[in-house]
Amino acid sequence: MLAHVGIIDSGYGAGNTQPAAKQWRAECSFTPAGDMKDRCGHGSAILNIVSQAQVQFSIAKVFEESLTCPVERVCDAIDWLVNQGVDLINMSFGMPSASPRLASSVASAVASGVICIAAAPAQGAPVYPSSLPFVIRATGDARCDPHQISWLDSQQADVGGYPGNPATGIAGASVGCAHVSAFASRFLAQGLAKDAQEVLSRFKEAAAWHGPEIRVS
Length: 217
Prior knowledge:
The protein is an alpha/beta fold. Helices cover 29% and strands 19% of the residues. It has a single domain, classed as CATH 3.40.50.200. Strands 2-3-1-4-5-6-8-7-9 form a 9-stranded mixed beta sheet, with helices on both faces.
């Protein structure tokens, strides 16, 4: 069984990164350019991480040169992915404020049984959609290697994953989020979980670390 994962990001193809044919389901660009070309490299990096799990992809492009876009694009992408029948949506980004429509789109996805996992900062103000109800909040945790997750259960985030290496590429909460989604996808593919609550329980059981990471400056 393959988990059907939706990715909302900047497209794919940077560094020749794209899903294998067996992993492909659908794609749609919500940007003015109307293509899937990844011009900032972020979506390709996220795709590469999640593709290490047993997954099929539907990919929604909302970002162009940077990880900023009108919130309506994200809402349209969520709605489209729900219609594609995804099991999980990875959102490796955070917006500074919510909107009624974003809250509605996420709520509709959750009501349809879609697991929503979104990036949350390890410190600082909350972001969206990770701060919306029933969204799994994922961040980077420097204690984790690529095969580990941490159970944080903190004010900031629910779970942490390998944050990547800033010296070699994209790193931080967005990378941690992708690793968390890969873990969740494995649980779904193996029949170990079927909904967000069961995924959270599996995260807690599988965590190599419990409690927030303590950073010393």
